[in-house]
Description:
By secondary structure, the chain is an alpha/beta fold. About 60% of the residues lie in helices and about 10% in strands.
Amino acid sequence: MIKTLASQIKEFKKESILTPCFMVLEVIMEMIIPLMMASIIDDGVETGNIRHIYTVGIFMIFAAGVGLFAGVMGGKYGARASAGFARNLRQAMFDNIQTFSFSNIDKYSTAGLVTRLTTDVTNLQNAYQMILRMCTRAPMSLIIAMFMAFTINARLASIYLIAVCVLAFFLVLIIRSGMKYFKEAFRKYDDLNASVQENVSAIRVVKAYVREDHEKEKFTGASANLYRLFIRAEKIVTLNAPLMQLTVYSCILAISWMGAHMIVAGNLTTGNLMSLLAYCMNILMSLMMLSMIFVMISMSTASAERVSEILNEKSDIVNPKNPDFVVPDGSIEFRHVDFSYKKDSEQPVLKDIQLSIAAGETIGIIGGTGSAKTSLVNLISRLYDVTKGEILVGGKDVRSYDLETLRNDVAVVLQKNVLFSGTILDNLRWGDKEASEEECIRACRLACADEFIQRLPEKYHTYIEQGGTNVSGGQRQRLCIARALLKKPKILILDDSTSAVDTATDSKIRKALREEIPGTTKLIIAQRISSVQDADRILVLNDGRVDGFGTHEELLAENEIYRDVFESQTGGNGDFDENGGEA
């Protein structure tokens, strides 16, 4: 874990080295000042030597100035190093997430990933800055102050040593008791973020069903859990302050009482007593800083583990050593394919799938809810890998292709249509970033999107809100189809992508696809028989198996499932099954 995180320091190594160096210099200057103060009192004030007072005073001012400069520079470089470290962590996590396959993404919740990129990284940033500054300053200050105290008077310095041991014992107990609550609290951040994300993304549904009170209660519950955990942890950790004050004042009283007796007996000077009191504060404040460091590091340990988990996660799907960079054509072949989302699953989602699809064919795919229609098409572009068997595209196993090459030639319009904040042209150019406005318009005409775009005030320069919330479901679907067409793919997969458009528009889209891109293999998942009956062949899936594969007429004659669906829909039902059917 430490090696993983340390690798993200990168170009901030210089700042990470300079920060503790300046901290050491600051500590040295601070430790010299009490000695100078003792010299002023003993050799200047008590002897009436004004010249000595001025001389040592000037050196004290110089030492204070150097200490101030070192503190400022340490703060500057520490802030730069910790902020840069956090930036690199976020970038490395985000870059690694982009390489994840769907199976990798399925391991983490969206809210969990957001928490790791924000709260957890901020915790590590604060901890790293404290390590660079306080982890250097506090131990150095403690060691040097203790050494100087024993040099002045070992008997009085022993009071510090006893106090340090007692205080360290209680601090360890406090930290160990509080840390279990902090670790649990950071895990609860995921629940809180999930509640906020779900509410904001589905705010229209919340309002439509008047569920604001329910959502408030859910958020309040998540927030209250987090509050209770932090209160428990803070109650324990705040014992640091009174314990520290008790120790500080006890040491001051003990040293003052014993020191006064020693001064009267002539065994200690007034200046040395003042220095010992100054070192007392240095030692005990160093302990306070160390306790804060331990708390911060312990708090950030859970964050470090969560961040490292993302950085060390390796994609299940990677490029082969010598990948193919050319997809010859859009032919598809499934050879005895089994697929499970979890490798240890007893029951596969897809079972012994055997299919052969020629380049340029239009294939309709129907099946009930849970029949694995979406799972089947996700395997073609390697969004998931097969558990058993192989899939060939253009006569080659999909696992032999360069991932980017394969996915550029296989365009997928998913069930959940996603648009991004930006203009309509910005969204369309996800399909081809170099596409001209004319090419975008042509793709939209094929997808029957141009007609509604032309009615918008700014047409193709109209701004789309995040998630496409300012356009209807059918309009989103048509924009996503146009975006896919701009890729000029060899294989086009439409996963129930016209469910929100009327039957007339659906028919126009299918006609345009048939006439304008005849060489592209088209796989159309649909719930309506009318959307697939004109396809070259139709695949009927049932419980992850191929139940039928043929033309509309062949299936009507030979396949009972297809015939029942056709009769129910032409009889007026209109839906594939009573659930409305997502694969």
